[in-house]
Amino acid sequence: MTPDEMFERLISPHFQGDGGLANDFLTAVQRGYPLSSVGQLLRSKNVYSRGVGAFIATFLRRDAVTAFKPVIADLLDDPVWRIRMDAIEALTQCVTMGDGRILGKILLMLDSEDEGDRHAVTVFVRIVDDDILRLAIVNAVAIRPDPPFSEIESSYRRREHRTRAGIYRSLRSDHRVVRRFAAAMAGRPYLVINEHLLELAENSGDAEMAEMVANVRTLPIPRGSVLSSKL
């Protein structure tokens, strides 16, 4: 099947999903098939076509993802959790200091009922630059000025998430979102990921926090950082 034939099937209003075809088309795009095709998929009213577009966006170069940033940001409100998860992952690659509202919306999804959303936000919290994370927190509070996000902002401003005592306090918060943020921050490397902070989250007595730490241990470590149990 030629790339044109693959795209014709993917963009069809009658397309009902095909993982193998999505992977084959990703290869075609990576080999130079027009990126405009991805934009058409992302804008499709067909949820399966839109899902393929979001999936492919997670593999694109930063400049290519940036070109589709507005339409990908719209997918943060998609009714399908898998599409939202891919949208967060794609946006994590290309958000800038000019994307305050997008950043705030991403962080607010730490309060989602869907595990996929929360997992994608955990990755976001772990790997984005300090300035980007701070802007995400500020904008999340601007959108939802009440707890739990105001509590997160206060703790982050005081740099409490860099200390064992601060992480411990957040993990004992009455707000599950604050505890989720603390668990994500426990796995955020500064030069070394502090194994003791991970253990603190892991042994907090909250099954979801323990699961998040288990996920953290399997995620890629940003370049230049290490995971150490010797601190």
Observed structural traits:
3% strand, 231 residues, mainly alpha, single chain, two-stranded parallel ribbon, 2 strands
What is the molecular shape?
A: elongated
Arithmetic mean of pLDDT: 93
Secondary-structure element order, N to C: HHHHHHHHHHHHHEHHE
Number of strands: 2
Low-confidence segments: none
Rg is 19 Å
List the total number of helices. Answer: 15
Sheet bearing the most strands, described? 2 strands, parallel
**Sheet with the most strands: spatial strand order:** 1-2
Whole-Å distance between the termini?
55 Å
Structural class, please? mainly alpha
Strand content: under 5%
Helix fraction by DSSP (H/I, runs of at least 4): 55-70%
Q: What does the model show?
A:
The chain is mostly helical and 231 residues long. The chain has 15 helices and two strands. A two-stranded parallel sheet has the order 1-2. The chain is elongated and about 60 Å long.
